[in-house]
Amino acid sequence: MLIAWSKQSYDPVLWGVPKGSYASNPNGPCRTIEFRKMVQALNCIGLRVVLDVVYNHLHGSGPFDENSVLDKIVPGYYLRLNRDGCIEQSTCVNNTASEHFMVDRLILDDLLCWVVQYKVDGFRFDLMGHIMKRTMVKATNVLNGLSKDTSGVDGSSIYIYGEGWDFGEVEKNRRGVNASQFNLRGTGIGSFNDRIRDALLGGSPFGHPLQQGFVTGLLLQPNDHNHGSKADQERTLAGSKDHIQVGMAANLRDFVLTNCDGQEVKGSEVLTYGGSPVAYALSPTETVRVVRVFLMNYIWLLSILLPVIHSSTSTRPRDQLLSLSQVNYVSAHDNETLFDIVTLKTPIEMSIDERCRLNHLATSIIALSQGIPFFHAGDEMLRSKSLDRDSYNSGDWFNRLDFSYNSNNWGVGLPPREKNEKSWPLIKPRIGDPSFKPQSTHILSAVENFLNVLRIRYSSPLFHLRTANAIQQRVRFLNTGPSWIPGVIVMSIEDGHEGVPGLSQLDPIYSYIVVMINVCPTAVSFAIPTARTRTFELHPVQVVSSDEIVRNSTYEALTGCFTVPPRTTSVFVEPRNT
User: Which part of the chain is the Alpha-1,6-glucosidases pullulanase-type C-terminal domain (predicted)?
Assistant: First the structure.
């Protein structure tokens, strides 16, 4: 979970320079001093800083452009050229060539500078797939090798992740082995899992905006878009469930599960609609502190920002969690916010209460999955950009975050023409309808629900297992095969018992966990024969939740039947003391 996120600048003229527009004076040493003070202040309140780095392109090129620097030093060397000698532009402008030795060296030196001189705690690589794998592996090794004795930095706590998209001139290793999703397995470098995002929301950011997915109403609450026949929708929904389950198992390529056809398959044998494997992660790799510190401090920070639901969770964070190579997410800064995309894809007649529940349900799936959970800033408060799909240049008017929780910024105007005009006919009736705007009570409830699911994640080590073998041994998905109940995912996580052969004991409090996700508009019951006579109960965090709906979740020991209310994620635990 990434808390403080600073950006190096998306149109870099020079790498290694804090962006001057954030400084009190962009000239002179102010930007450097103030950036260092900012990192220090954030660290003092328990937050870590991740820097968004853009090494895949440069703002200027050629001998005359005032923003051209590296291309003037050695023309044609730092930038990637095509066969005609022209600069490749697939990233957006002036692609850099990390396959060249000095570009590789410059990236490594720059990363060291940010870590040693500025005490940055991690890096998110923009379009990481356009950088060579060897550069990323070198960076990981160099940074993880730092020590407090030699450089004042604990390198083992530095985390690197990025966008492992494979496209453009580097696609399929055409310029060398690039840092794409499939090439990074086993390196410990994180990459975004777009498979789980698309399965949850429907379609893709490049498809029809009304294409529904598992969470947004496919088959169960259809909108006006043509999704094909009922059989087509059933098949798509079942396939989406398989994709989500693979993602919830850390997207491990060797994880074995029962697919929608009733066959036992590996994660790598579950295919996307384009025919490529859903799973690409090899295994959880190294132990790193940074991710847990991020997430636990987020609970602590929100508990301070929201005193009405302040609780004992505002303790200082514990210090250890593994780094997985899998980053699960459902929304990020690109494209519409989670609230906006749920609002766009769900039926126009759906109530705001229902949409808010779906927003939380989507984040709960990410939070309770194995791997690293990533949340876009504002997911927890129903953040809206008024359906702006690309707000990089939309200013504070569309990008506003309201930590008073009075507004989520919905309906502040028609989003700018450049990237949104094609969707204006869909956008206008929605943002013009006052019933689509959540009230402060909706936002406060969303924040509390988000905090609760984070508390649940860190109430048990079973939600963040350390090895691929542990995930395969302990995580099971039920409600599978062709006779599944549509719209329901059931995941169990089993722990061992001290002194009993078999699984080792990891959790001193709970011996068994069942997570039941119900996206249906009605309550659903599901019986687990092996759960009969066991002592399951609703997770204590949900028992005391102000969400009356989740409190209605039940378990019947005689039949092993779990009942979950509509649009709800319920977590059942078996305490060891019973």
Answer: 405-574
